[in-house]
Specification:
- This protein has 13 helices and no strands.
- The longest helix has 25 residues, at about 220-245.
- The radius of gyration is 21 Å and the shape is globular.
- The model is unreliable at about 290-294 (pLDDT under 50).
- The protein is mostly helical.
- About 60% of the residues lie in helices and about 0% in strands.
- The N and C termini lie far apart (about 40 Å).
- The chain has helices at about 40-60, 60-75, 80-100, 105-130, 130-140, 145-155, 160-170, 185-195, 205-210, 220-245, 250-255, 260-265, 270-280.
- Helix 3 (about 80-100) packs antiparallel against helix 10 (about 220-245), helix 4 (about 105-130) packs antiparallel against helix 8 (about 185-195) and helix 10 runs parallel beside helix 13.
- The protein has one domain.
Length: about 290
């Protein structure tokens, strides 16, 4: 039996924007012309609304962390160029991942994280190689293999300097892994793990994560989506720094990249790779990359 949420709970009342709140909007406040019927609305919204309330009742601080990270991403966007276009798209992917996770669509949340990773990997390759043609081809619909991007990117400056150092530090690296040919590489490993959730099969479908039909709240599904988001963000931020060296480490991203935080969502050797790049690119120790925000 469904019930109304207590109106004393700020989550109980919906809010909408005024028409003039939109950049391209106007002051038109015409009455709605095609409102959905109440039964269809509740059929669509009741389950995901319930997951959103449950999630923010018991995982509220974690959702706030992801929101802070997503918000901080908008503060580091370049104004023009391939990196600017890509990072705007990555922001959209992070938003989609957070929204889907909040409402219990864990598979879709993880799939959105994969979109962020492949977009940022391609953009970094194109920026470092000064290859605008490849970016335009991708925008036009051409498919590019992620493994080939990794092969190409690890052969570009400054990765040719950083990746051998990363291997010495961590016995792995972002693209070349421990042997320089991909074994144990962080980016390849993460992409493979995220890709498992793109197709609904085996134990990576939503129904398996929910152990039911849904959407419903799943502690296992939430943990997988949450850790996937954090790990993808960490790698995308490093790639953004390589593509756009002025990229800073701001706000919640500072906390997410601290060594004690990395231990919560990254396993060795990928955690050590991340620590190496935080130190090299942001000129900060991952044990204290910056003063945490109050």
């Amino acid at each position: 039996m469904v019930k109304r949420l207590d109106l004393a709970d700020f989550r109980a009342v919906r809010r909408v924007l005024e028409p003039n709140d939109f950049a391209l909007g106007d002051d038109d406040e015409s009455a709605p012309t095609d409102i959905i019927d109440e039964e269809a609305w509740h059929s669509i919204m009741t389950l995901p609304d319930d997951v959103a309330i449950t999630t923010t009742s018991f995982q509220g601080s974690r959702i706030a962390v992801l929101h802070g990270i997503t918000s901080a991403w908008t503060e580091v966007l370049p104004h023009t160029g391939i990196a600017a276009s890509a990072m705007a798209d990555v922001f959209d992917a992070f938003q989609a991942s957070l929204f889907n996770q909040l409402h219990g669509f864990y598979k879709e949340a993880i799939s959105a994280a994969r979109t962020a990773l492949e977009t940022m990997t391609l953009a970094t390759t194109c920026e470092l190689a000064s290859d605008s043609a490849a970016w335009e081809q991708w925008l036009g619909g051409q498919e590019l293999r992620f493994t080939r991007l990794c092969d190409r990117l690890q052969a570009l400056v400054p990765l040719t300097t950083f990746e051998p150092k990363a291997r010495k530090f961590s016995a792995s690296s972002i693209f070349g892994g421990e042997d320089g040919r991909g074994k144990n590489a962080w980016a390849r490993s993460l992409y493979g793990r995220l890709s498992q959730y793109v197709h609904a099969r085996g134990n990576t479908s939503n129904s398996e994560l929910w152990d039911s039909n849904g959407p419903i709240y799943s502690a296992r599904g939430f943990r997988l989506a949450y850790n996937s988001f954090l790990e993808t963000h960490a790698l995308c931020l490093i790639l953004a720094k390589l593509a756009y060296p002025k990229t800073p480490l701001l706000g919640s991203a500072q906390l997410a990249m601290r060594a004690d935080s990395l231990q919560l969502y990254l396993e060795d050797p990928h955690r050590r790779v991340c620590e190496f790049y935080v130190s090299e690119l942001f000129n900060a120790s991952p044990h204290n990359p910056a003063t945490p925000p109050a």
